[in-house]
Design a protein that fits this description.
single chain, 493 residues, OB fold (Dihydrolipoamide Acetyltransferase, E2P), 2 domains, five-stranded mixed β-barrel
Length: 493
């Protein structure tokens, strides 16, 4: 009822403005300044100095606050750069300008032009000589002091979240800056940015459940990509020896504070490099970003200080299972002992699971959450690494690492498998896994194997989760806080 009454009042104001011939949605508003420009250039000037400027300034933005004293008022306007106070007096405006002010509401977009001065409280202020409506808001904003705090409402109505919660805009400005720094770093190291298909005839490049769609004209099923990997490696085979893509991926999985079915990754491939080269490269990339964002290597996430100072800890999967999970070295090589340890630890494992899968289930359950400071975990089992090169020292392991910070995987990298015969065997094993119920196992990809038969140079590749990186670098507790429009269940009411 209260909302209906507020809407009624606003509609009455709209009718009055229209009757006076005022355009509520004009298209000739041209502000010449932003609030930040004015503050930066004139924020230090005092009264007499401002009087000598003699220039008119114009800004446009959302009306955020009004202190009305009858024939005069102070208002706050918010544009994309910040806020500024304006002084509105009847004697300084024409009749239409003053009517616009009297019929304005919090949330309206307005245009103000005038000279600068300082109030008795020494606040830099625009004295409005011109005031126009730029766009009339029919619906009221959330109450100022209560704000927009309901999580669901914030994510569903991100426009309101951005208007009333300044911190939100800062998060996405930092996200944009982080991606800019990534591009800067990759381009500096002679990587070429490319684009690969988001709709693919088969889901490949990762172990994940895909989203399926259908193309009517071709009468073919397609999948939203779970990773760009196999296409990027086709480019490497074609002679693009250093490529990267900042890409959207889609995985038909659960939603959590660290998972969204649509997410953004940096994925890149570097010929004549190994996974060990990528560890150093990744350290330097993070150092490059942190130096620009924080001015140093330390930052806090969820109250925990994270130190990015290289070199970062390196530990193999098996070493981590002994050191952090408490497994006996002998159990790492014994399927029955590993299975018993996994079940005792509360892991969901099946009798038919290979030793490598059992070990990784234990790792995921016990070890991950203990990896707080930046840690490279290396040498993953072949069974869970279908696209990785085998280790020369142990054919059951791969030259692969994952990067963990605060107990969460942030990057996955490996020396690429470029032996087409070995790749075919891995895909065939994945098909067997699918037959036993693993719907995340990789499909056979004959076209990719054919590509490898033309010889792909020795290459290392890596994927870095940009959303998670932004979470850490903005101290955001949920991935939804760093994605402008996260996936939500449709409301039925």
């Amino acid at each position: 009822m209260e909302d209906n009454e507020l809407l009624k009042v606003r509609r009455e104001k709209i009718a009055a403005l229209k009757e006076a011939g005022i355009d509520l949605y004009p298209n000739d508003i041209r502000p010449q300044h932003t609030t930040a420009e004015i503050m930066e250039k004139y924020g230090a000037l005092q009264g007499e100095e401002l009087a000598k400027v003699g220039q008119n300034f114009s800004v446009a933005g959302r009306l955020m606050a009004v202190r009305d004293f009858g024939k005069a008022a102070f208002i706050i306007i918010q544009d994309r750069k910040g806020q500024i106070q304006c002084y509105v007096a009847k004697n300084n405006l024409d009749d239409q300008g003053y009517l616009v002010f009297k019929k304005s509401d919090i949330g309206d977009i307005i245009y103000v032009a005038g000279k600068l001065f300082r109030t008795k409280t020494n606040e830099l202020t625009i004295e409005a000589a011109v005031l126009r409506m730029a766009a009339k808001s029919i619906r009221p904003l959330p109450e100022k002091w209560h704000g927009l705090t309901d999580i669901e409402t914030r994510y569903r109505q991100r426009h309101l979240d951005l208007i009333v919660n300044p911190r939100v805009k800062e998060v996405f400005q930092r996200r944009s800056r982080i991606i800019e720094l990534i591009r800067e770093y990759m381009n500096k190291h002679d990587f070429l940015e490319v684009e690969t298909p988001m709709m693919q005839p088969r889901a490949g490049g990762a172990l994940a459940r895909p989203f399926k769609t259908h193309h009517n004209a071709l009468d073919m099923d397609f999948y939203l990509r779970i990773a760009p990997e196999l296409y990027l490696k086709r480019l490497v085979t074609g002679g693009m020896e250093r490529v990267y893509e900042i890409n959207k991926n889609f995985r038909n999985e659960g939603i959590s504070t660290f998972h969204n079915p649509e997410f953004t990754m940096l994925e890149f491939y570097w010929s004549y490099a190994t996974y060990e080269d990528l560890m150093l490269f990744t350290e330097n990339l993070f150092v490059h970003i942190a130096a620009q964002i924080f001015g140093g290597m330390k930052f806090k996430y969820a109250g925990q200080e994270i130190d990015l100072t290289p070199p970062w800890k390196r530990i193999s999967v098996k070493e981590a299972l002994v050191e952090l999970a408490g497994m006996k070295p002998a159990a790492l090589e014994d399927h029955a002992e590993a299975l018993a340890f996994a079940r005792k630890s509360g892991c969901e494992v099946k009798e038919a699971d290979s030793l490598g899968k059992v070990l990784m289930a234990i790792f995921d359950e016990i070890v991950e959450k203990k990896l707080i400071q930046p840690t490279f975990v290396t040498h993953y089992p072949v069974e869970v690494s279908p696209l990785s090169r085998r280790s020369a020292k142990d054919k059951n392991l791969t030259d692969r690492f994952e990067l963990y910070i605060y107990g969460k995987e942030l990057a996955n990298a490996f020396s690429e498998l470029n032996d087409p015969a070995d790749q075919r065997e891995r895909f065939e094993q994945q098909l067997k896994d699918r037959e036993t119920g693993d719907d995340e196992a990789h499909e056979m990809d004959e076209d990719y194997i054919r590509t490898l038969e033309y010889a792909m140079p020795p290459t290392a590749g890596e994927g870095i989760g940009i959303d998670r990186l932004v979470m850490f670098f903005t101290d955001s507790p949920s991935i939804r806080d760093v994605i402008l429009f996260p996936l939500l269940r449709t409301k039925t009411e």
